[in-house]
Amino acid sequence: MVYQKYRRILLPVLLFPILIIIWELYIRIFEVPNYLLPRPLELAGSMVDLFATGGVGKHIIVTMKEILIGTVAGIAIGLVMGYIMAKIKFIERLIMPFVIIIQTAPKISLAPLFILWMGLGIESKVALVILVVSFPIMINQVSALRSIEENVYNLLHVFKATKLQIFMHVELPYSVEMLLSGVKLALTQAMTGAVIGEMIGAKAGLGYLLTLGSETYDIRMILNAVILLSAIGLTLYLLSEFVERKALYWKELDKSVIG
């Protein structure tokens, strides 16, 4: 019973020490040089040193700020654009080709343009995050509104519901599930956008540490930056999943009733 309830947590916790042992054995058996792959304890010690000196804190804050500001702005823009495109098909036909062209362009090729236009500060990274976040939100918003049956709108028109009432009582509830799914995807995209921007040109951030570690051949710095980015990404994903589960509590109730 306890295992079934917490298996999503227990399985990774049990797997983690096994991976550490395999890592250590691989280095010992194949005599991997320390500058290519440090031992787990050495890497853990370097991570502690990073936090002890206080140098890594500002980089985490910068990256988190880029992700959060860009994600919030990207969600807002994606919702507005998605709503307009779902309601006015002419706007969708007009804008969608350009949106697809921008989204299919490799973000690593767009990052230098943003940095050239906006500088090495946080603005260029936030703009890149907005670009990658707004698209999945916009697409999910359009799909959600298009999934509402025409009969629902006809019934509301019979009852002379206002546009605000239609939005609040039909369109918004219909959009919540797909919006939250889009947010989970958008958060992973936001992380990628911020890191790409920082690696191309930045004064601070975890992506900047990746570049610095590569230039100075510091494998510990690179691995520590990767671990921190993975931890942040996992935390944001779990947080969005928690919010989704709480917001869509009725789905769990349905499962319990059916089950």
UniProtKB/TrEMBL annotation:
Residues 60-240 form the ABC transmembrane type-1 domain. It is found in: Cell membrane. Its main location: membrane. GO terms for biological process: transmembrane transport. It is a multi-pass membrane protein. InterPro entries: MetI-like, MetI-like_sf. GO terms for cellular component: plasma membrane. It comes from the Bacteria. Keywords: Cell membrane, Membrane, Transmembrane, Transmembrane helix, Transport. Pfam families: BPD_transp_1 (PF00528). The keyword Membrane applies. PROSITE patterns: ABC_TM1. The chain crosses the membrane at residues 9-29, 67-86, 98-120, 126-145, 222-240. PANTHER family: ABC TRANSPORTER PERMEASE PROTEIN HI_0355-RELATED, ALKANE SULFONATE ABC TRANSPORTER-RELATED, MEMBRANE SUBUNIT. Belongs to the binding-protein-dependent transport system permease family. This is NitT/TauT family transport system permease protein. It comes from Ruminiclostridium sufflavum DSM 19573. The lineage of its organism: Bacteria, Bacillati, Bacillota, Clostridia, Eubacteriales.
